[in-house]
Design goal:
Structural class: alpha+beta
Number of strands: 7
Helix content: 10-25%
Number of helices: 3
CATH superfamily: START domain
Order of helices and strands: EHHEEEEEEH
Number of domains: 1
Length: 167
């Protein structure tokens, strides 16, 4: 299971405002390229995002199902990646003063990635998910459009001014 951790200069609620807006999904998830539809029930458990990954002309239509929605602590998403298979992605958030620690864990459930040795899957996935958390931090800290909030508006410095915690 690949794990990434990042300290964000925002409250856990700011992270969950981004996760709750399904239309922002391709802005923070590396590989997702466009949204096709967001279920009216999103982010309720069982609700689905319809998006694509890759780039033209090799776009694959994909879905992600919300399996656990427990703001401002935990969300578990299940991306279905067509021929790549299904993954389970857990986002755990803990307050740390006026900041928060976000842990992203991803594991393959079905498909060819389950055949990779853990060390190979983890190395590739940790590299990609470091960028995913970087993007999520920009949105959560900066009060992304459509999220009605953001700690950046409350005077925190930008994420770009410090190194992430990625251990």
């Amino acid at each position: 299971m690949a794990r990434n951790v990042r300290l964000m200069r925002c409250a856990p609620e700011d992270v969950f405002r981004v996760l709750a807006n399904g239309w922002l999904y391709p802005l923070w998830v590396v590989g997702a390229s466009r949204m096709r539809d967001v279920a009216e029930e999103w982010p309720a458990e069982g609700a689905t995002l319809h998006h694509s990954f890759g780039s033209w002309p090799a776009l694959v239509n994909d879905t992600t199902i919300m399996r656990v929605w427990d703001p401002p602590r935990r969300a578990v998403l299940e991306p279905h990646g067509g021929p790549i298979g299904i993954a389970r992605v857990a986002v755990d958030v803990k307050a740390r003063g006026d900041m928060c620690v976000v842990r992203l864990q991803e594991e393959p459930v079905t498909g060819p990635t389950t055949l990779l040795p853990d060390v190979v899957f983890d190395a590739i996935t940790r590299w990609r998910n470091a960028e995913t958390l970087h993007r999520l931090a920009y949105l959560a800290e900066g009060g992304a459009p459509g999220t009605s909030g953001g700690s950046a508006a409350r005077g925190h410095e930008s994420t770009a001014e410090r190194e992430p915690i990625d251990r």
